[in-house]
Amino acid sequence: xxxxxxxxxxxxxxxxxxxxYVTGLLVYILFKGRIEEGSFTFLLSDPxxxxxTGILLFVMLYLIWSVIESKEIVLSDQSFIxxxxxxxxxxxxxxxxxxxxGFEKGQDHETRGGIIRMKVRSRRSPLVIRPRNxxxxxxxxxxxxxxxxxxxxxxx
Length: 156
Fold this sequence. Notes:
PH-domain like; four-stranded antiparallel β-sheet; alpha+beta; three-stranded antiparallel β-sheet
């Protein structure tokens, strides 16, 4: 880990949600619509249609915001950097008090993957990193394990 390694946030789950809600909305419109005199009509004031549309708009806005924000983690020998398009927070290795690997409570360990908690001097609560949410998650896990060894060597 001599050079800086960058891991970008994955957005594929948001694309899947968007496709799922668009498909659901179209299927619902097809089932609830009527063909009268050669034209297709449907009721815009239907509460389920409004709910589907609201969820779809929320997912679209969240996806657009996530693309604009472009979160990423940068790891180097001396620091852990959490970067977005609008800000960058640098945590030197000497400021990391501890790192713990584990699983989220109430989740299936085989399908959900693990989390890494990292306590930093400048923060009240620990940072929570979910490697499965980033590209090249296995490489990120390995690099965080190396960083954990360095933190243990410094704190002992």
